[in-house]
Structures are given as structure tokens and as C-alpha cells.
Design a protein that fits this description.
The protein is of the alpha+beta class. It has 4 domains: 122 residues, no CATH class; 107 residues, no CATH class; 50 residues; 79 residues, no CATH class. The strands form 2 sheets. The protein has a 5-stranded mixed beta sheet with strand order 1-2-3-4-5, sandwiched between helices. A 3-stranded antiparallel beta sheet has the order 7-6-8. Strand 3 and strand 4 form a beta hairpin. The protein is elongated, with a radius of gyration of 36 Å.
Length: 383
């Protein structure tokens, strides 16, 4: 690479003021000497470092051929070193030694900048991740493989949801500000502090920061992966609700009935099911489906109910029958439920099918006169 000052007049002007400079032309010489805290300036083609009084100026890149430029101050020393170490710059250590600037002379400034959080942005992906989002598209893998398998989605459903997701995706997974609020941020900051604090020279500091990069990359990946997965699932549940709460063909499954009951409550769920599923013959069929779902949920342990809700469930089951109903329970678990029958023999057959060879399950066919439970106005509970 070509090296040197763009403007030698500037260098000579600074020299006259007593500011030490390094002119690094091909056959030039460097200024040697022990750094004693006085002003100095290094202005390489792709990086620069200048001390002027109590202020510092740090520089990386250039607009001419690097197409990128960054400048900073003393509070950004840690990030400056991280970028130096990950770049093609290979003469940083040599030049600092030639200028007589020992790592220990600036160590306190570097450690303080690291403790403030400087460098975390660079070590976790820098602009490539946080500005240009060049970390792949894990959303596609989550949707096309994990979500497809877990939710048993068809090709059309995958395609429909992809369109929906990318129209509503949250960009928080690619925003450094959101990462800085996560638990991963402090882990990376601590790794940078340890890297610069334990170093005694420039080579060791740069090597330590390179070793710490794996911690930054792992934290960045884990954060983004979790954030994107959470966003995908949040959008999927919204999409599923919007999709399922619209008109559909066929008879609703227990999963869909559960969504309706959870969203609307039993009575409104029955009306909504009848409205959105034209294939249902009547409101009574919707009532039967909801009751069957509730019995199934209680039997399988996916739904727990209190005593008042039991009575309410029994009421709804009995209300739909002309004469007979059936209750069942299991030893050690006296939960009871009901189903409508207009024929006593059918009720017995259903009871046998329910047992499915399990002798712990008992049933009996009874004739009940339903009495609707009342809801407590204060607690909202059925009694």
C-alpha cells in the first residue's frame, strides 16, 4: 500500500510546533524516542493516531480507495484496536514502537474505553451485521424446516406465512440498540475489558482481542437466533389466529375449537364457529363439537376446571339431550363430564368406547334435569 502524508506542508507545520510526526514514505525514516506524554501524530494511509494536548484523534480507512472512513476519540480506543486487529493493517505495532509509544502508556485510556462498552459493536459483527445485516436469513430456515415440521404445515401454508412474516417482521434482531439491552452485552464487554487489561504490550492486546472475538460472535449469533425465533413465532401465532378466525371449509378440529373457546368463551365460540364454518349443519352441531372438545380436554389433562365449571359443563351437556346423559370418572380423579344421548343403548356404547379397555374408568348412564349454574357477580366464578 502507498504510505505517507497527503500534505507534507501540514507535517512540517506540525513539526515546527514541536509535534512529533512519522513520515512513512518508501525510503523515509521514522521519528524515534521515548513517549513522554507529549503531542505526536501518525497519519498512515489507512489509519491515523494523533495526540494534541488533552485530546486524541483516531482514524481508520479513507474515502479514496477504501471507500470507508471512521474517526474517533480517546473514549473509542478499544473499538479502534479491535478494528485494527481485524483489518489488513500489519504495521501498527511496528509503527507504535518506532514512535516510542508503549502499550502501557495508553493502557489506562484503552481499559477505560472498554469498561464504558466501547468495542462491543465491533466485536459482535460491526457494520456488516448491525448496519448491513449481512448475517444470512435464518428466518427462512426456521419457517421452512422447524416451523413446518412442528406445526405440520403444507407447502402453501409455508408460502403464505412467509409472505405474511416478511411484511410484518420486527427488525430488532439486527439492531445493536436492542442487543445492548440484552444479557449478552455485558458478557462481551467483560471479555473486551479482560483482553486489554491483561495485556502488557501491543501484540498481546491485539492477540487477546482476536481471541475474544469468538465470545462476541457467539453472543451475537445466540441473541439474533433467539430474537428472530421469538419474532417468527409471535407473527406465526398472530397469522394463525387471523387465518383461523375467518371463513373456512370443513369441520373444525379440536385445536381450532380450543382457539375459539380461549378467545371468545364457550357461548360466543359456538356462534363464531357456526359463522366461520358453513359446513356445520346447525348451531347444535357447533355446540356438540365444543362440548366434545371440552370432554376430550378434561380426559387428556390438557384442561383443568373447578367445581363450578364442572357444573356448567354438565349443564351444557345435559341441555342438549332430550333424556339421557352419561358421566364418567377415573379412580383417584373424580372429574366428571357429560355427553348427550337420546338413546340409552347408544350412551352405554359410548361409555365402553370411552373406557377403551381401561377398567379404571367407570361410567354410568343417568337421566338428569339440568339446573343452570349461576355466575358470582363479584368473582365471576360459576357456582
Amino acid at each position: 500500500m502507498s504510505k505517507g502524508w497527503r500534505n507534507d506542508k501540514q507535517r512540517h507545520s506540525m513539526a515546527k510546533k514541536g509535534i512529533r510526526t512519522a513520515n512513512l514514505k518508501a525510503k523515509g525514516t521514522r521519528t524515534y524516542g521515548e513517549y513522554s506524554g507529549d503531542d505526536f501524530s501518525i497519519d498512515e494511509h489507512y489509519w491515523g493516531l494523533e495526540k494534541n494536548g488533552d485530546s486524541w484523534r483516531l482514524r481508520l480507512g479513507n474515502w479514496t480507495d477504501a471507500g470507508w472512513h471512521w474517526s474517533g476519540e480517546e473514549s473509542e480506543f478499544a473499538g479502534f484496536l479491535i478494528r485494527i486487529g481485524s483489518s489488513r493493517i500489519d504495521d501498527f505495532v511496528e509503527i507504535m514502537k518506532d514512535m516510542g509509544v508503549d502499550y502501557k502508556d495508553l493502557k489506562e485510556l484503552i481499559v477505560e474505553s472498554a469498561k464504558s462498552g466501547d468495542g462491543v459493536y465491533m466485536l459482535t459483527g460491526d457494520n456488516a451485521k448491525w448496519h448491513f445485516s449481512q448475517d444470512g436469513e435464518p428466518e427462512y430456515d426456521i419457517i421452512r424446516y422447524q416451523l413446518r415440521d412442528d406445526e405440520k404445515l403444507t407447502d402453501k401454508e409455508v408460502s403464505d406465512f412467509e409472505d405474511y412474516y416478511f411484511s410484518n417482521a420486527d427488525a430488532k434482531s439486527t439492531q445493536f440498540g436492542a442487543f445492548a439491552e440484552s444479557e449478552h452485552y455485558s458478557d462481551v464487554k467483560d471479555a473486551i475489558v479482560e483482553a486489554v487489561e491483561s495485556a502488557d504490550d501491543w501484540e498481546e492486546a491485539l492477540d487477546n482481542l482476536k481471541d475474544a472475538r469468538s465470545i462476541g460472535e457467539e453472543a451475537s449469533f445466540e441473541y439474533s437466533d433467539n430474537a428472530i425465533y421469538s419474532d417468527v413465532m409471535e407473527k406465526y401465532n398472530t397469522w394463525k389466529e387471523e387465518r383461523f378466525f375467518t371463513e373456512q371449509e370443513g369441520i373444525p378440529s379440536n385445536d381450532i375449537i380450543e382457539m375459539y373457546v380461549n378467545k371468545f368463551g364457550k357461548v360466543k365460540a359456538i356462534n363464531q364457529l357456526q359463522k366461520n364454518f358453513p359446513d356445520l349443519e346447525s348451531k347444535k352441531q357447533a355446540e356438540h363439537l365444543v362440548t366434545d372438545y371440552q370432554i376430550h380436554a378434561i380426559k387428556t389433562g390438557t384442561r383443568t376446571i373447578d367445581a363450578g365449571q364442572k357444573r356448567l359443563l354438565e349443564y351444557w351437556g345435559v341441555k342438549m339431550v332430550k333424556k339421557y346423559t352419561i358421566t364418567f370418572g377415573q379412580k383417584g380423579n373424580e372429574i366428571k363430564s357429560v355427553r348427550k344421548f337420546t338413546n340409552k343403548d347408544r350412551a352405554k356404547k359410548w361409555g365402553e368406547d370411552l373406557k377403551d379397555g381401561n377398567n379404571d374408568i367407570k361410567y354410568r348412564v343417568v337421566e338428569l334435569k339440568p339446573k343452570k349454574p349461576k355466575r358470582d357477580k363479584k368473582t365471576g366464578r360459576w357456582k
